[in-house]
Amino acid sequence: RMKEILDFLAQSPAFYVATSDANNQPRVRPFGLVFEWNGKLAFGTNTTKNVYKQLEQNPLVEICSFAPTGEWMRISGTVKFANDIEVKREMFRVMPDLKKIYPEAENDPTAICFYIDKGEAALYNFASMNEQFKITKL
Length: 138
Prior knowledge:
This protein has 138 residues and is an alpha+beta fold. The protein contains 3 helices and 8 strands.
């Protein structure tokens, strides 16, 4: 199912990541970077951003994406952070334009990845809420 999820997210120029701040206020922002890392659905961000700080305080996340086909996907779960050189190398391989933002690439201390540790993904069609599948141990 991982390939289906990645392919679906790739159809859209952005998908939306929701977290909550210290006051439990929901916060949503567009993301475009997603990749598979050791069988897990992984994303990249920066340790100076609010999304990172919010996920540190509350690791629950929800992601939503809409495709031109009229289908949409909701992914929810708990995240964990990965900061080792191998995951960062993969992040910069998947999105090489990030090197314009992070000239030190995988050696930049502010670049960080997070992945869905435990969660589920559901794929919906506006005509019928037909398919649901779960992601486990991501």
